[in-house]
Design goal:
This protein is 83% helix and 0% strand. Helix 1 packs across helix 2. The two termini are 70 Å apart.
Length: 122
């Protein structure tokens, strides 16, 4: 092997050809690595843009949840009066109006049928 390389470099045409092929191989390797680094950089920038958009959406969701929570608090305070569906003592029990609504909804059957599914996720 050593003699083959020595013979290639001793011959003027072989030495030039070998060096030219080596230079082309190095240029190709540099080009390939540069292209891969560019693709990686573009992918990272795209992920950053997507993360920024997700942050914006999460901020909007947070604002919406705060709004809903405040409305639920206000709604809860409004129904805590005489028209309330639940009694205000412990354990919680239904008022006459609450029992009427539960019967209209057939809540007992719904709860019995969906208890496993709702409580245990099956």
């Amino acid at each position: 092997m050593h003699q083959l390389i020595q013979t290639l470099f001793e011959n003027p045409a072989g030495g030039f050809g070998t060096m030219f092929a080596f230079a082309l191989a190095v240029l190709w390797a540099v080009s390939f690595v540069s292209r891969k680094i560019g693709e990686h950089s573009q992918a990272v920038e795209e992920m950053k843009r997507k993360a920024d958009r997700a942050d914006e959406h999460l901020e909007k969701l947070r604002d919406d949840l705060v709004f809903i929570k405040s409305k639920l608090i206000v709604f809860g305070e409004k129904i805590a009066g005489a028209d309330s569906l639940t009694a205000s003592h412990s354990p919680i029990s239904l008022t006459e109006l609450g029992e009427k609504v539960a019967k209209e909804m057939d809540a007992e059957r719904l709860i019995a049928n969906d208890f496993e599914k709702n409580c245990f996720g099956d």
